[in-house]
Amino acid sequence: MEVLKETKGVVHDSTEFGLREDNLAKTLHGTTDHGFTPLYVSEDDDFKSCDARADFLIDALEALYWSTNSTHRDPAYFPEPEKFDPRRFEGNGPAPYTFVPFGGGPRMCPGKEYARLEILVFMHNLVKRFKFDKLIQDEKIVVNPLPIPDKGLPVRLHPHKASAMS
């Protein structure tokens, strides 16, 4: 916390480059998936799907897997989920537990704030020093099983002029 106080005038929520904390959520929306941690069912249960697409029996001690990507790309929560739309995170943002790049509730990833700070510092330094040109403008995102750019997202970096650094 001391570091945050010392850098308050240097690194703050809004900069001339548009690097803001809420931009992290906008960026993470289509790209996060923290793996496939199983949930074990303690007793047999008849599962009724909330949208009536599936009804089935889940046996006790059966492992269930859920991918955050299945929620992050659900049109019921995010209209046009494949489209990059930062406005969906403005105001109150998405409904609780529909966007969970670090999990949620009492078992949320303890590294969330550390990761957030690391991303902010890293991106601040990149944006401060370089201009970016995407080499493939409409690159596809492939999900297998995690979302990644099809061609690796090649970019060209151009250093800012020395006068822009001060």
From TrEMBL:
GO terms for biological process: sterol metabolic process. It is a single-pass membrane protein. One of its GO terms (molecular function) is oxidoreductase activity, acting on paired donors, with incorporation or reduction of molecular oxygen. It comes from the Eukaryota. Pfam families: p450 (PF00067). The keyword Iron applies. It is found in: Membrane. Its cofactor is heme. InterPro entries: Cyt_P450, Cyt_P450_CS. Keywords: Heme, Iron, Membrane, Metal-binding, Monooxygenase, Oxidoreductase, Transmembrane, Transmembrane helix. GO terms for cellular component: membrane. PANTHER family: CYTOCHROME P450 26, CYTOCHROME P450 716A1-RELATED. Belongs to the cytochrome P450 family. This is Cytochrome P450.
